[in-house]
Each structure stands twice: as C-alpha cells, then as structure tokens.
Design a protein that fits this description.
Layout: H1 14-17, H2 30-37, E1 53-57, H3 65-72, E2 78-85, E3 92-100, H4 103-112, E4 117-118, E5 121-122, E6 124-127, H5 169-176, H6 182-219, H7 223-242
Antiparallel strand pairs: 1-3, 1-6, 2-3, 4-5
Helix pairs in contact: 6-7
C-alpha cells in the first residue's frame, strides 16, 4: 500500500532492491535470483555495536586508518576503525567501518561526512546494514545496494539510490481519459469534434482538387487554364473556411 511506502528499505528484499520503485514481481537479472536463493548469515566474528557503526565506501586505495581517524574524529570520539583489506595482499578494498562511542557523533558524521572528498575521492557514508537491516544479502551474493548502470545490476532502497515513488496508475488513467471535472470533460469532447471535422473538410477539399487535376489532364487543357482552375478552387476553399 502507498501508506507503507518509503524511499529507504525497512527490510531487505532482493526482488524489491532490483526494482526502481520496489514494485517488480519478477527478477530482471541473474544476480537477484542468486540473492533470493542465498542463505546468508551475518559474520558472527564481527564485534562492536552495529547501531553505532558507519559504513564508509569509495575510498582511495591509498587511504589509511590514520587518515580516516583524522577526518572522522571531527564528529566525535571513535571507538574503533576497521579498514577492510585483502587477506592475501593486504591492500585496501576501498571501504571501512567506523564505530563511534556516542549516537550523537554517529548521526553527525552520517549527515555531514557523506560525499566528503578524502585523498581526491568522494566518499559514501551510510549506517551499517549487515547487522541492522533484516534479510540483508551482501553484494557478492547478488544483493546489496551497490552496482553500476553498465552492469545492469542496479540496486535501490538505500541512501545512495532510494526507491522512486510509484506512479498512481488509477489517477493517471482517469486524467488521461478526461474523467476529472465536468467542465474539463466537455471541453475535451468539443475539441475532439472540431479536430475531426477540420480533418474531414481538408480531406474533401484535397480529393476535389485531385479530381479536377485528373480531368484537366485527361481533357488536354492548357497549363494556364489548369492554373486558373486550381486558383479558383483554392479561393472557394478559403471562403468555406471563413464561413
């Protein structure tokens, strides 16, 4: 129902996340099927309070924990920073989790730090969703709220790409067929009648001119006589229109 609709997902549903307005009934790509069939359980090894943790993404691969601490400590006291790194190479994967000590600092960073530029990269900041959003499926299993337009795997319902408000189809249909006010309906019908009458008159005059041309060509009239006959015909048409 429209009363329950919200631009941000309250519960993660891969099918809705793959829909621009959350109303699709069938998956449009294979990743959504994978997410729907996945049986994902959040990592129990992750510690800290999920309700005080921010997710920070689109980081420069050269950005370090020290740089993140320098930037995000402006909003309040930080309890922990976890920059996610590759287990083999140790290189940054471009995203991190920052846990604050107070909710006030969390909310302030969520409000002000999003789209902040760090090391020439515009970052993305949101609340942690893995342990707070029911039904969450990560991107590697076909879920998440990420994705690129080129891949055809866009995901909606998050802060970066919220659901678009669905079109109220019954109201649009009523307006389209002129089922609004009586005054508007009458105007619409009259306009349609005038338009049809005008087209019918134009077709008749065009057929009449073509008939005269064919007769003149068949009778072998001179070019001057044909031109004068066409001029008289156009004059009659103008008089008819003026009436």
């Amino acid at each position: 129902a429209m009363a329950d609709w919200a631009p941000i997902a309250k519960e993660y549903d891969p099918l809705k996340a793959g829909s621009i307005d959350g109303t699709d009934e069938e998956p449009h790509d294979r990743a959504i099927w994978r997410a729907m069939l996945a049986r994902y359980v959040p990592n129990k090894g992750v510690t800290g309070d999920p309700h005080l943790t921010l997710f920070v993404a689109r980081l420069n691969l050269q950005t370090t924990e020290e740089k993140l601490k320098e930037v995000f400590s402006r909003y309040g006291d930080i309890r922990k920073i976890r920059l996610v790194r590759d287990l083999v190479t140790g290189f940054s994967k471009g995203y991190a989790f920052i846990e604050y000590k107070e909710e006030r600092a969390l909310l302030k960073a969520h409000r002000d730090a999003n789209r902040l530029v760090i090391d020439q990269h515009e970052i993305f900041v949101d609340f942690e969703l893995e342990r707070t959003l029911k039904g969450w499926i990560p991107r590697r299993l076909g879920g998440g709220f990420g994705g690129k337009k080129e891949s055809g795997q866009l995901r909606f319902g998050g802060r970066d790409r919220p659901f678009r408000k669905p079109i109220n189809l019954p109201n649009v249909k009523n307006d389209f067929y002129g089922e609004g006010s009586t005054e508007k309906r009458n105007w619409s019908r009259e306009g349609t009648r005038d338009w049809r009458t005008r087209d019918r008159d134009q077709e008749r005059s065009r057929d009449k001119r073509w008939g005269e041309r064919e007769r003149s060509w068949a009778w072998g009239d001179s070019e001057r006589e044909r031109d004068s006959r066409e001029e008289r015909s156009r004059g009659r048409d103008r008089k008819d229109r003026d009436r």
